[in-house]
Design a protein that fits this description.
This protein has 701 residues and is of the alpha+beta class. The protein is built from 20 helices and 34 strands. Among the domains are: 96 residues; 131 residues, no CATH class; 159 residues, no CATH class. The strands form nine sheets. The chain has a five-stranded antiparallel sheet with strand order 1-2-3-5-4, with no helix packed on it. Helix 10 packs parallel to helix 14. InterPro entries: MIOS/Sea4, MIOS_a-sol, WD40/YVTN_repeat-like_dom_sf, WD40_repeat_dom_sf, WD40_rpt. Belongs to the WD repeat mio family.
Length: 701
């Protein structure tokens, strides 16, 4: 504390109390701010804390330094160093025990009056109080007082009373004989006891730092330096000491005391205070005159022990606790990285220095970060929907379930992936159909070739070619190969009282496409009943009804809708749709068509919308079905293979293939097959999702 600028001291054993000292001593109690309104007599320190004034002591004028008694009892005993060199014991508490009463008001007076610059209680033998004074040519500048003794410690006159001040009315309250006298004909600017040995005292003298051993006061260890102010020991590394001079801070290693191990960046203004953080290793705070910035030096990574030529690594940063100039600051003794600062006009702020956050990814993709003494981990275990998880997490979980390794029932791999991604489901069903159909066509072709060879050589020319390679090329190639071989068939909708002819198209290649879409089994038999049964078992009523209708079986579609409405998981609105279907008519201007067109716009399910779009469309114009994007690609392609002519089908498949490639949509593998187009599509998918796992397993097929 210099001049009249206030200083702050935290109570050693009450973490919610601190003292502000300048011309008087003010004791404050810090508390949490329970509301935005301040209580009477409270000061706002931060958004979370307030301070309440408990007591004021104005009995010690001319204060130059203050030190709080380090032990719990008496709890509010303070030593005050004055401008005349006297050290006075005073109190701010309501402690009425006999020990405190005997000590309060006691004065320790040097032989010659001069300013007291610094005070330091011995942390172990708390009766010892060291005082550092200005220079006097005939006196010592470091005096160590025993606050409990009234007699001089001289062995020759053991019973001689301590000399008292001449006019003091209370005998025994003024002590003039110190326990130890050190530093003759010199000035002491700062003091601190060394925690490693209670008999060692480090003093910042006029031109040197000196270590005094009270077991042999005639000898001392010293090093010449100008950095003699504010000596303070790192509470976590007792051989590390900081001191300062003007704008420079020197860091010392007491084991190699010849020179500083580090000199911190010189500041443009003189320093007024340096202090180690008591809750964080290697963190030093410094304050310069007329500044609202506190500079922090993090020596967390300093090598221990420090080598001869090795400078410790430090991280430097600055914090601004308030807008006004800071007179002093004090670290909180227990709250991590917390300090209270005070301005020259006694405005105070409670401030926490936040640590830099270090991030780390674990091998299993959880994120961990460190902030101070705390470690935080962020995982995706709490996410209910696996689609929200990071792709690395999903790939790890899929690998644990042996995803992609079921080569016998290839379609099951989408179940191993969690059965939540419709694109993966479409991909693995497509691969399953491709592998099955390729194997069947290849075996049949080989069998027929062997069987017919014995009849005639030109029989091979009459045999159907091997469709296996065509299956691998996808529906886009299959459709192109069918140009000019398609037959027109006219069919009417089964189950309707009024029959309307609808043109369907049939060829061997289109049947192959329907097989890849999963609608029918092998051959030209267009029976979709097994497919409808499987959809009903899965509870996919809307899709099953749509597929039945697209195969011109209105009666079967109505049956499925009614069954779905009566099931426990079905939608009761399916009955309404079934009733609407039952009134189907092909009259273009009928009320039924008008009402269905309106109903279609109110439906949310894409398959129900597609059903009414189909019923209200003109023959050959089915954009309402083909471009209903929420209908599965395989169902739209199968529909196109049944109701579009060769030119229309080729244009639609070409356009849809390009859309799937650009979007990286795995449903497009049905169209591209395992060709170059399929590789391009898979590349877009990986770029979009990062799922290299699925791409690898797919390409292995």
């Amino acid at each position: 504390m210099s001049g009249s600028k206030p200083d702050i001291l935290w109570a050693p054993h009450h973490v919610d109390r601190f003292v502000v000292c300048d011309s008087e001593l003010s004791l404050y109690h810090i508390d949490s701010a329970v509301s935005s309104e301040l209580k009477a007599g409270s000061l706002r320190l931060s958004e979370e804390t307030t301070a309440t004034l408990l007591s004021i002591n104005s009995d010690t004028p001319y204060m130059k330094c203050v030190a709080w008694y380090p032990k719990y009892d008496p709890e509010c005993l303070l030593a005050v160093g004055q401008a005349n060199g006297r050290v006075v014991l005073t109190s701010l508490g309501q402690d009425h025990n006999s020990k405190c009463k005997d000590l309060i008001g006691k004065e320790f007076v040097p032989k010659h009056a001069r300013q007291c610059n610094t005070l330091a209680w011995n942390p172990l033998d708390s009766n010892w109080l060291a005082a550092g004074l200005d220079k006097h040519r005939a006196d010592f500048s470091v005096l160590i007082w025993d606050i409990s003794s009234k007699y001089a410690p001289e062995t020759a006159v053991a019973a001689e009373k301590v000399r008292l001040s001449a006019g003091d009315p209370e005998a025994g309250l003024v002590v003039t004989k110190p326990l130890y006298e050190l530093g003759q004909n010199d000035a002491c600017l700062s003091l601190c006891w060394l925690p490693r040995d209670q008999k060692l005292l480090l003093a910042g003298m006029h031109r040197n730092l000196a270590i005094f051993d009270l077991r042999n006061t005639s000898q001392k260890i010293f090093v010449n330096t100008k950095a003699v102010q504010g000596v303070t020991v790192d509470p976590y590394f007792h051989d590390r000491v900081a001191s300062f001079y003007e704008g420079q801070v020197a860091i010392w290693d007491l084991r190699k005391f010849e020179k500083p191990v580090l000199t911190l960046t010189e500041q443009p203004k003189p320093l007024t205070k340096v202090a180690w953080c008591p809750t964080r290793t290697g963190l030093l705070a410094t304050l310069t005159r007329d500044s609202n910035i506190i500079r922090l030096y993090d020596m967390q990574h300093t090598p221990t022990p420090i080598g001869d030529e090795t400078e410790p690594t430090i991280i430097e940063r600055s914090v601004q606790p308030c807008e006004n100039y800071i007179a002093s600051f004090a670290w909180h003794p227990t709250s991590q990285n917390r300090m209270v600062v005070v301005t020259p006009n006694r405005t105070m702020s409670d401030f926490t220095v936040f640590e830099r956050i270090s991030l780390a990814w674990s091998p299993v993709t959880s994120l961990m970060w460190a902030c101070g003494r705390h470690l935080y981990e962020c995982t995706e275990e709490g996410k209910a929907n696996s689609l929200e998880k990071d792709i690395a997490t999903k790939m790890r979980l899929r690998a644990l379930s042996r995803y992609g390794l079921d080569t016998e029932q290839v379609w099951r791999n989408h179940l191993l992936a969690g059965n939540e991604d419709p694109q993966l489901k479409s991909l693995w069903y497509t691969l399953h159909y491709i592998l099955c159909l390729t194997a069947i066509y290849s075996l049949n072709f080989l069998y027929m070739k062997i069987l017919m060879k014995q009849y005639t050589e030109d029989m091979d020319q009459k045999l159907t070619g091997n469709k296996g390679p065509l299956v691998y090329a996808g529906i886009k190639s299959i459709v192109k190969s069918s140009l000019g071989t398609t037959e027109n068939l006219r069919h009417s909708r089964s189950g309707s009282d009024r029959q309307a002819d609808i043109i369907q198209y049939l060829s061997e290649e289109r049947s192959l496409a329907l097989q890849l879409c999963g609608w029918i089994k092998k051959g030209t038999d267009l029976d979709v009943e097994p497919f409808l049964n499987s959809l009903e078992q899965e509870g996919d009523w809307e899709r099953a009804a749509a597929v039945a209708l697209f195969n011109l079986d209105i009666r079967r579609a109505i049956q499925i809708l009614n069954k779905g409405a009566s099931s426990g998981k079905g939608d009761l609105n399916l009955n309404v749709v079934a009733m609407a279907l039952s009134g189907y008519t092909d009259e273009k201007n009928s009320l039924w068509r008008e009402m269905c067109s309106t109903l279609r716009l109110q439906l949310n399910n894409p398959y129900l919308c597609a059903m009414f779009a189909f019923l209200t469309s003109e023959s050959g114009s089915y954009d309402g079905v083909l471009y209903e994007n929420n209908v599965a690609v395989r169902d739209r392609v199968a529909f196109a293979c049944k109701f579009l002519n060769d030119a229309q089908l080729n244009r639609f498949i070409e356009k849809l293939t390009n859309e799937m490639k650009d979007a990286g949509n795995l449903e497009g593998i049905l169209l591209t097959g395992l060709t170059k187009d399929g590789v391009d599509l898979m590349e877009s998918y990986v770029d979009r999702t990062g799922d290299v796992q699925t791409a690898s397993y797919c390409m292995l097929q």
